[in-house]
Amino acid sequence: MNSEELFKEAQTLFPMGVNSPVRYYKPVPVIFKHGYGSKIYDVENHEYIDYSLAFGPMILGHANKTVAEKIKNQVDSGILFGSLTENEVKLGEIIRNAVGSIKMMRFTNSGTEATMHAIRLARGFTGRKLIVKMEGGYHGAHDYALIKSGSGNITFGVPSSAGVPEEVSKTVLVGQYNDIESIETLFKQYGNDIACVITEPVLGNIGVVSPKNDFLKSLREITEKYSSLLIFDEVITGFRFAFKGYQDIIGIKPDLTTMGKIIGGGAPIGLFGGREDIMEKISPSGDVYEAGTFSGNPLSTAAGIATLEILRNKDYNYINNYASMLGKALEEITSELHMDVQINVAYSMLQMFFNKTPVVDYRTAISSDANKFRRLFMELLKLGIYVPPSQFETQFISFAHTDSDLNKTVDAYTKALESIRD
Ligand SMILES: Cc1ncc(COP(=O)(O)O)c(C=O)c1O
Ligand SMILES: N[C@H](C=O)CCC(=O)O
Q1: What is the DSSP string of 44-64?
Q2: Is residue 199 within 6 Å of ligand 1 at its C-beta?
Q3: How far apart are CA 130 and CA 172, in angstroms?
Q4: Which of 19, 47, 288, 399 is the least buried, fewest Cβ under 10 Å from its Cβ?
Q5: Does ligand 1 have an atom closer than 6 angstroms to the CB of 42?
Q6: Which residues contact 362 (CB under 8 A, 6 or more apart)?
Q7: Torsion over CA of 188, 212, 351 and 395, rounded to 10 degrees?
């Protein structure tokens, strides 16, 4: 079947033909068949340089030979036992040695599960009900995270989800990222009832937005003052900027951390972990329940171990410099074309916003021209460049991207931006 035929069939199977909303766009989403290194190929065999990397996890590029070999070995020796395995211990040790605040952890099957359990744990540990999240912060697709959330929630203009009971949304307070006063106001009113503040330390689901003016340090201070827990959602940032968490780069220790994506090397995974005294509250040592048939499964942990063992010896300057060179080139192109554009780069993450004003939070992000971004996406596609299909996602660089990819990408952006200039 060709793309049109496959998509037609998919629409009879899945709502709008997809299994996650951000994968949908008109007229027919690209249907990928395989990928090698920095390139992915659709069912018609068109080649694209990939800057989505499956929304972040594929930091080594696609079909890395060593990772594939380790997964195949695991397939040949059994893929699920429903009991503790050596792989889990190995992966857990690698992560604990690399991320300062994670003393104990639990593996889950996704980032969504990780944040859901971390929030329940924070509530169980503190005996408090309220949580604080940032407007535009994305923590997966469970009830407590789908309040003023980022990612597909903004792309499709759904600030919260139907089906989340009012009683649930009333327990979620929303602050503004990079605006500590908005958080202080919430704490002044509700401080002794707030179980935790959860935030992506670098926002990655409204495009990419970095922290400013000691915002994260102030979050740490205010949560300590009120004996609330601080949760860093490092599902994107964990092992993305360096062989550690973003928390280790900036020297701030959250009480709990969530991870996912890269630590599973492209296989389904999530993790929540942190202080021992908090983690011991988890069942069976404690009374906060958390479980999963596939949690810590041999395949995901094999892929994770292989990926992290390779990453340990990588020089992250390579991907970080690539992103900064691409960012600079995009600044030059858009300034020559007199286009109102903001280019945010954080290490190996990058996004271009069609906006006159700097994008520093949710409100400035949503004032961007998302339709223009969609036109850019379509033009780039024609030129063999695949970026995430929304203004409110982030472009990622992998260790498989090459100088020649960078040159081709800059050429393609030049042509694409010229063609969408009004
Ligand atoms: C910061 C963040 N947290 C949580 C999630 C949820 O992870 P998953 O899609 O694996 O459920 C995502 C991405 O989806 C994310 O970007
Ligand atoms: N923005 C999300 C994750 O970071 C996109 C992943 C998805 O929902 O498919």
Answers
A1: T--EEEESSTTTTT-TT-BT-
A2: no
A3: 6
A4: 19
A5: no
A6: 134, 135, 136, 148, 150, 154, 176, 177, 206
A7: -80
Q: b or e along 148-182 (b: 16 or more beta carbons within 10 Å of the residue's beta carbon)? A: bbbbbbbbeeeeeeeebeeeebebbbbbbbbbbeb
Report the separation in Å between the CA atom of 139 and the middle of ligand 2, taken as the mean of its atom positions.
9
CA distance 206 to 151: 6
Q: 237 in ligand 1 pocket by Cβ < 6 Å?
A: no
The CATH code belonging to domain 65-311 is: 3.40.640.10
* Global pTM value: 0.97
Tell me what pLDDT residue 341 has.
97
Instruction: Kindly give the distance from the C-alpha atom of residue 352 to the centroid of ligand 2, in angstroms, as a whole number.
Output: 18
Q: Which of 22, 117, 139 to mutate to test the pocket of ligand 1 (most atoms within 8 A of CB)?
A: 139
Ligand 1 atom at minimum distance from 115 CA: 4
Q: Which run of H or of E encompasses 126?
A: helix 111-126
CA separation (Å) from 97 to 91, 231, 245? 10, 19, 11
Cross-sheet strand order for the sheet of 47-50:
32-36, 39-42, 47-50, 385-386
How does pLDDT run across 207-257, given as a tens digit for each residue?
A: 999 999 899 999 999 999 999 999 999 999 999 999 999 999 999 999 999
Output the pLDDT for position 159. 61
Partners of 231 in the β-ladder: 198, 256
Residue 115 exposure: Cα atoms within 13 Å on the Cβ side:
26
Q: Which residues contact 19 (CB under 8 A, 6 or more apart)?
A: none
107-128 residue pLDDT tens: 999 999 999 999 999 999 999 9
Span 31-63+315-420: which CATH code?
A: 3.90.1150.10
Q: How far is the CA of 203 from the centre of ligand 1 (A)?
A: 12
Which of 109, 153, 235 to mutate for ligand 1's pocket (most ligand atoms within 8 Å of CB)? Answer: 235
